[in-house]
Design brief:
This protein is 64% helix and 0% strand. It is built from six helices and no strands.
Length: 109
């Protein structure tokens, strides 16, 4: 099997994809069922809002796509949570950028 392309997606998008696939098929494969079960318990945002949040986060120039996906998956509620999600990249953000990220999450989620 050859990989044609790769795309980072949020957990919410994966959940939506698996739910659609479940409706189309009678039964999901074992791994798909397990993944959907976990995502149902832990995903806090619907795919539409996740895309909206991604679009807003892309306006912050210092954030790369992988950072944005991690932020949308974790939905940090304060600076300490955000520091955990971004790890060493956190120190490159200004206080204003950190506040903007947290305000955007609160506004959309």
């Amino acid at each position: 099997m050859n990989v044609i392309s790769e795309k980072l997606v949020t957990d919410a998008e994966v959940k939506g994809l698996l739910e659609r696939r479940k409706k189309e098929m009678e039964e999901l494969k074992y791994e798909q069922k397990n993944t959907l079960g976990v995502l149902k318990n832990f995903v806090k945002i619907d795919p539409k809002k996740a895309k909206e949040l991604i679009a807003e986060m892309q306006k912050i120039e210092k954030l790369r796509e992988r950072h944005i996906i991690s932020i949308v998956n974790a939905l940090p509620q304060d600076a300490d949570d955000l520091r955990t999600v971004l790890q060493k990249e956190y120190s490159g953000l200004s206080k204003e950028e950190i506040d903007l990220i947290l305000q955007t999450i609160k506004k959309i989620s």
